[in-house]
Amino acid sequence: MTPLRIAIVGYGTAGQAAAVLLARDGHQAEIFERAPEPGPLGAGFLLQPSGLQVLWRMGLLDDVLSHGARVDRLYGETPCGRAVMDMRYAGLDPRLCGIGMQRGALFSILDQARGDTVLHAGITIEGPDDADDRWLRDADGGRHGPFDLVLAADGAASRLRGRLGGVRRDAVYPWGALWCLLDAADWPHLTELRQRYVAARRMIGLLPVGTRPGDATPRLSFFWSLPIAAFDGWQAAALDGWRASVASIWPEASALLASTTTHAHLARATYRDVTLSRWHRGRWVLLGDAAHAMSPQLGQGVNMALLDAEALRDALRSEDLPAALAAYARVRRRHVAIYQFWSRWLTPVFQSERDLIAKTRDVAFRPMGRLPGGRGHMLRVLSGTQHGVFGSLALAPEFVDALTPSVR
Ligand SMILES: Cc1cc2nc3c(=O)[nH]c(=O)nc-3n(C[C@H](O)[C@H](O)[C@H](O)COP(=O)(O)OP(=O)(O)OC[C@H]3O[C@@H](n4cnc5c(N)ncnc54)[C@H](O)[C@@H]3O)c2cc1C
Predict the structure, then answer these.
(1) What's the 210 CA to ligand 1 centre distance in angstroms?
(2) Mean of per-residue pLDDT scores for the chain
(3) Type and span of the H or E element at 391
(4) For labelling, which of 82, 275, 291, 350 has a CA lying 20 to 30 Å from the CA of 158?
């Protein structure tokens, strides 16, 4: 296909990955990011085999493995030690794992790979110019263009998706989280995502996320669940009271918070449930959370953003523009749908005031994973490789081999 002039709105993982992949195919990309100093927001995340395979195909897996932490197991329990969730990637393939990463680490790796693609920082894009959708309009009245294709990768709270006119559902979850990075110190579970639950009212998560360029201290991503209506109350109260609540649920986790002395140390996270009837209109197309925001309960959003960018690049290689956008949306919607379904159902099971649901979860979640068919499905959903209701996303043997040396 002839090289296109492409605008990318948003420099999160979706925008970053698209910038790298499309520039490598010879397209002329320009990025518009509203933050004056683009950088990662939040603490850490778990990369799944699905997303890691994209990074492998981009030639970035070694960089990722040199900073990330190998995660073999997801284990959740009640404060009295009753196991609620216990999943191991080895149940799918002994060589598979997730990789916990600091947001700053993946941001730097993708930013390095961007090369000389132009990044315009501090520009908020409002939408297409009313008269000509080849042009972008910014919040200060500026116009940018003309472009052959515009990627709207402006995140979960996207203001651009409404402009494409296909929003079926866009709801903010009533529960969110506080999160931060902590020094891993002598934390004993360095290959596991560990969670503790008190019904669905309290949840603490600790995920090993390795190091980042310029900082060799291994860290953990700490997650504390709470209703978004309680954010301000938490901020107004003394931190000691909150730390005592953490200690009552998980004393070892509370010890890690010793250096957390101000509220500003923890960032607030809210999340949305977004479904669309269309992912593209004219020459504008949605990527990442802008297209399919979901709760982080399944830990898939970064992986989806990487898969989106790669699928769009592939579609542009083989079709003319309108057909390529339709092909991209078809491929990605089919993969995303099952994760949207499960994250919608699972979120209140882990974050809500529904005690009966939580009690049922405590009793039934592990046995469900042992039912015929149940275990494989749960593991494929976890690893990002469930595709549609019955299919699975293929992992190349060479990729799985490349992941294996990360065993530490
Ligand atoms: C608590 C929490 C834990 C999570 N854990 C995981 C996990 O373990 N694994 C996982 O895979 N995912 C996880 N996620 C989800 C993941 O963080 C997101 O799905 C992913 O970051 C989405 O990337 P994105 O590029 O689509 O959007 P974003 O990263 O939100 O990037 C959007 C960018 O667009 C910019 N922007 C917005 N509006 C405009 C505009 N009008 N003009 C110009 N720029 C604009 C923003 O400044 C931002 O830089 C988690 C999310 C949360 C909140």
Answers:
(1) 20
(2) 95
(3) strand 391-392
(4) 350
